[in-house]
Write a structure and sequence with these properties.
heterodimer, A: mainly alpha, two-stranded antiparallel sheet, B: mainly alpha, ABC transporter involved in vitamin B12 uptake, BtuC, 13 helices
C-alpha cells in the first residue's frame, strides 16, 4: 500500500515533467503550425548546460538559473537563424530540417562534452527524504520537481489566459494572418513563444538530470513520448497536453512497476520477466491507438482553423 | 532534341549501368570494400523506393518505415535461429509479416492526416522497436546473429558476395518496376488522385482509405524484403535496425533524391550513404556537417537531385 503511494507520486512526477516538454511542443505547433523534432535536443541542452554551469559556479541553483537562460537564448537564436524559414512550409520539410538539427546537436555535444555522460549532483538539502504520510518517506528532490512543475503549469495557464501576450498567443493560434494585419509584430511573438517552449524543454531536461545521467540522445525517447502526449491530448491544446501527460506518466510508471508482478500470475517467471518491459513500453502506444480509433483528433482538440 | 535525351535520362542510364557493372570493377580492381558498400546502398535504395511509393505518390508521410526493415530482418533471423533455414519459407514469411504489420498499422494510422500521421507511424515503429528489445530469447537489445544464410536449394548461393549483390540489385530493379507499374495503373492513378484531392475522389465514389491502405501494405512488404536482405547482408539483426533515426534516414534519402520520382530515391540513397561513409572516415562527428546540410537542402533544394536534373534539360 505504501509502495503504491510512492509509485503514484513517481507517476505524477514523470507526468508533470512530460507536460513541460509537451507544452512547448504543442504551443509551438498550435501557434506556428510548426513540428519541431529538435525539441528533444533542447531538453538535452538544458541538462548539459545545467551540469556545466553548476560545476563552474559550484552552486546548483545558480547553475539551473543560468541553464534556463542559456536554453531560452539558444531556442531564440535557433528560431531566428534557421527555423523561421521553415514556417509555412510543408510539415515534411519541417520534420526533415529539424531532424537535421538533432544530428547536429548530438554530434556537437559529443564534440564539446565528449561521449561520456555528465552528472548533476544535488545539493545536500535536496537529498533528504521527506515523510509525506506516516511511514512513507519520499525523496525531497522528486517532491521539488512536482512543486516546480505545478507552479510552472499554473504560471503558463495564467500567462496564456490572463495576460496581453497570452491573448496575442491565442489570437495567433486561431488566425495568424489576421493578427499580423492588426499591427502585431508576429515575428517577434513567434521568436518569444519558441524561446518559451525551449526554456520549458530545458527546464524538463535539467530537472530530470540529477535522476538520470546527462547523456547524448537523452531527449529522443522522451520526445517521442511527448509526441504521443500531444497526439492523445489534441495538437495545440495545452489543457489536453496536461491531462494526457499525467495519464501517460502514470501508465508508464505504474506499468513498469506492476506489469512484471501481474504477468507472473499468468505466465512462467522467465516469460514474464521477458515480456514485462516490452508490455509496459507498449501500453502507452496501445492507449494512443485506442484514442485514435475513438477520437482521431485527440481527446481535447484545439479550436479548428 | 526531345525529352528522351535530357540530362536526367543520361544520368539514370549511367547509374543503372554502373550498378550492374560494379562487381566486375570490384573483382578486377580487387576492391572488395566498394562491393560491400554498394550492397548496402542497393538494399537501402529498395527501402527508399518503397517509402517513396507511399510518400511521393500516396502523400502518406510515414516516419516509421524502418519498422519493416526490422520485421523483415527479424523474420529471417528468428526462423534461422529456430532451425528453419530454407529461404523458400523465410522470405515469404518476412513478406507476410511485414504485410500484416502494415495492414494493422495502416488501418489505424490512416484514420489520421498530416502531422498526426507522421507522429502515429513514428510511435508505432518505436513500439516495434521496444518489442524487439524485449525479446530476450532472440537477443533483446544485443540483437541476433544469423549463423547461416537462407538456403535456396542449389538455385542461388547467398553467401557468395557477387551473387548476393545481384540478388539485391534484382530486388531493387524489380521494386522500381513494380512502382512504375503501380503508378501508371488505374489503382495508382486513384492513389495519386487521393493525394491531390481526397474529397473529390470520395465524391466520385472511391473509398480513398482502401486504396491508401493497399498502397501502404505494398510499400511495407517491399521494405520488409529490404529488411530481410539487410539482415542477410550483415548476418545480424538487432533492434537498432528499426530505431527511429533510421526512419529519418530513409526519409532523407527519398527527399534528397527527389520525392515522387521513380529513380530519385536510388540517387538519394547513393549520395547519402556515400557521403556518410566518406565523412565517417574524415571525422567521427559527421552529424555536425550532415545535419546543417540537411537543413540547407530542405530550405533551398526543393524537388531533390531529380528535380534539379529535370531542370537541366539539354537542347
Amino acid at each position: 500500500m505504501l509502495l503504491v503511494v510512492e509509485q503514484l507520486l513517481n507517476g505524477l512526477q514523470f507526468g508533470l515533467l512530460l507536460f513541460l516538454l509537451a507544452a512547448g511542443l504543442t504551443l509551438v505547433f498550435g501557434i506556428m503550425d510548426f513540428v519541431n523534432l529538435a525539441h528533444g535536443s533542447l531538453y538535452m541542452m538544458g541538462a548539459y548546460f545545467a551540469a556545466t554551469f553548476a560545476a563552474w559556479t559550484g552552486s546548483f541553483i545558480i547553475g539551473i538559473v543560468l541553464a534556463l537562460g542559456a536554453t531560452l537564448l539558444l531556442g531564440m537564436v535557433l528560431e531566428y537563424v534557421a527555423l523561421r524559414h521553415l514556417y509555412g512550409r510543408d510539415h515534411l520539410d519541417q520534420v526533415l530540417g529539424t531532424f537535421g538539427l538533432i544530428l547536429f546537436f548530438n554530434d556537437a555535444v559529443r564534440l564539446i562534452w565528449g561521449p561520456a555522460g555528465l552528472s548533476l549532483p544535488l545539493p545536500a538539502w535536496l537529498t533528504v527524504p521527506i515523510q509525506i504520510v506516516p511511514g512513507v518517506f519520499y525523496p525531497s528532490y522528486r517532491l521539488a520537481i512536482i512543486a516546480v512543475s505545478l507552479v510552472v503549469a499554473a504560471l503558463l495557464y495564467l500567462v496564456v489566459m490572463r495576460t496581453r501576450v497570452g491573448m496575442l498567443i491565442r489570437a495567433g493560434a486561431s488566425n495568424r494572418e489576421m493578427i499580423g494585419a492588426l499591427g502585431i509584430n508576429i515575428r517577434l511573438l513567434f521568436t518569444l513563444v519558441f524561446g518559451l517552449g525551449a526554456a520549458l524543454a530545458g527546464l524538463a531536461g535539467l530537472m530530470q538530470a540529477p535522476i538520470l545521467t546527462v547523456q547524448i540522445g537523452m531527449g529522443e525517447n522522451i520526445l517521442i513520448l511527448a509526441f504521443v502526449i500531444i497526439v492523445i491530448g489534441g495538437i495545440g491544446s495545452i489543457r489536453g497536453a496536461f491531462l494526457a501527460a499525467i495519464f501517460v506518466g502514470m501508465i508508464d510508471t505504474l506499468g513498469r512497476a506492476y506489469a512484471p508482478d501481474l504477468l507472473r500470475h499468468l505466465l512462467s517467471p522467465t516469460a514474464a520477466s521477458t515480456a514485462a518491459p516490452a508490455l509496459s513500453s507498449m501500453l502507452i502506444y496501445l492507449l494512443m491507438a485506442i484514442v485514435l480509433v475513438v477520437r482521431p483528433e485527440g481527446l481535447f482538440p484545439a479550436s479548428k482553423r | 532534341m526531345t525529352v528522351m535525351f535530357n540530362v536526367r535520362s543520361v544520368v539514370w542510364a549511367l547509374v543503372i549501368v554502373s550498378l550492374m557493372l560494379l562487381p566486375l570493377y570490384s573483382s578486377v580492381s580487387g576492391n572488395i570494400f566498394i562491393l560491400t558498400l554498394f550492397t548496402r546502398i542497393v538494399i537501402f535504395a529498395l527501402a527508399a523506393v518503397s517509402l517513396n511509393l507511399i510518400m511521393g505518390y500516396g502523400g502518406m508521410m510515414s516516419f516509421g518505415h524502418a519498422a519493416y526493415l526490422g520485421i523483415g530482418g527479424y523474420a529471417v533471423g528468428i526462423l534461422a535461429y529456430e532451425g528453419i533455414g530454407s529461404g523458400f519459407i523465410q522470405w515469404p514469411v518476412a513478406l507476410l509479416a511485414s504485410a500484416l504489420f502494415a495492414l494493422v498499422i495502416g488501418a489505424l494510422s490512416l484514420r489520421t492526416r498530416g502531422v498526426y500521421f507522421i507522429m502515429i507511424t513514428l510511435a508505432f515503429a518505436q513500439m516495434a522497436y521496444y518489442i524487439a528489445s524485449g525479446m530476450a530469447r532472440y537477443g533483446g537489445d544485443d540483437g541476433l546473429t544469423i549463423y547461416k544464410r537462407s538456403d535456396f536449394g542449389g538455385l542461388i548461393n547467398l553467401s557468395d558476395r557477387t551473387q548476393f549483390y545481384y540478388v539485391c540489385l534484382a530486388c531493387l530493379f524489380g521494386g522500381i518496376y513494380l512502382v512504375w507499374r503501380i503508378v501508371n495503373s488505374r489503382f495508382g492513378l486513384v492513389v495519386q488522385g487521393v493525394r491531390s484531392n481526397e474529397q473529390r475522389m470520395e465524391a466520385i465514389g472511391f473509398h480513398a482509405n482502401r486504396y491508401r491502405l493497399v498502397c501502404f501494405v505494398i510499400s511495407g512488404m517491399m521494405c520488409g524484403l529490404a529488411g530481410a536482405l539487410l539482415a542477410t547482408n550483415t548476418d545480424f539483426v538487432s533492434p537498432s535496425i528499426m530505431y527511429w533515426t533510421r526512419s529519418g534516414d530513409l526519409m532523407v534519402m527519398v527527399i534528397l533524391g527527389g520525392i515522387g520520382s521513380l529513380f530519385g530515391p536510388v540517387i538519394g540513397t547513393i549520395l547519402f550513404l556515400v557521403l556518410e561513409e566518406s565523412l565517417s572516415q574524415v571525422t567521427e562527428f559527421s552529424g555536425i556537417i550532415i545535419g546543417p546540410l540537411l537543413l540547407l537542402i530542405v530550405l533551398f533544394a526543393r524537388g531533390g537531385i531529380d528535380g534539379w536534373l529535370g531542370r537541366l534539360r539539354r537542347g
